Amino acid sequence: RGGRAVQQAVSSRLAETSLKRRRESSLDRSAAKPRAHVAEERRLAEERTVSEPVLKQYELFKKRFDAWLLDSARVHNLASVEVNIVDYLDVLLHRNANYGELEKSTAAVIFFIPEAAKHEMPRVKSVLNGCLKAKPPRSRLPLPDEVVYGLAGILLSMGHKAMALMVILGKEGYTRPMEMVNLKCEDLRAPVGGAQVGLQLYTVTVAPEDRMERSKTGVSDDAIVLDRPDWLG
Q: Under 8 Å CB-to-CB from 47, ≥6 apart: which residues?
């Protein structure tokens, strides 16, 4: 019985010591948390430097980059960022990616690694210049009027009046899809009385400031004049 009592006392003492160590370890981790919290606050402020649509694009490109790192079994740290970006751009170039994707992929990786400034990576800048020559950006020409109005006519025949107007207004106003989706009736502005000849036209306000909206380029209250076709304005 005496041996069992001693054994139980030793076990109890070991359990208390183990619990004390776990508590001390937990306190050490808690003391280290403010640094991570500060990083999160700084990250939130940095995210405000770009609009929400751009941030979502960056997140998509960064996920693709991370997936490539994982598949390639790459070491990813601050010292290897430049080499990884250069090799990743080479892979995208062989996949026939356009220059816009190459540039945005680079911007996304650098955005989520604030310490990696582009001016500190001369190879990345050189590779982007080479990509620009290999894959020069091309202008996207609008669809012919016959196609656009044909699509609008089909939608109109199906009873989708708002969608038909959206197709026409999107082409004539050169608006982005999300800008069209966010439009409200109040965003249509009537002509101002006494305006100059040729300016008595309706306008559409994109990303109104009073609704705290921002366009893809981070601009608010962007006015689009409906001057073509004549019946639209």
A: 55
* pTM score over 0.85: no
Q: Say if residues 164 and 153 touch (Cβ distance below 8 Å).
A: yes
Token pair of 227 as six digits: 């001057």
Distance CA 75, CA 84 (A): 9
- Provide the 8-state DSSP code for 205: E
| Sheet of 188-189, strand order | 188-189, 203-206, 222-225
Tokens of 25: 């370890």
CA triplet 199, 203, 208: central angle to 5 degrees?
A: 140
User: What CA–CA distance (Å, rounded) separates 223 from 215?
Assistant: 12
d(CA 107, CA 118): 9
pLDDT tens digits, 163-218: 998 898 888 888 888 888 888 888 888 887 665 655 678 888 888 888 888 887 77
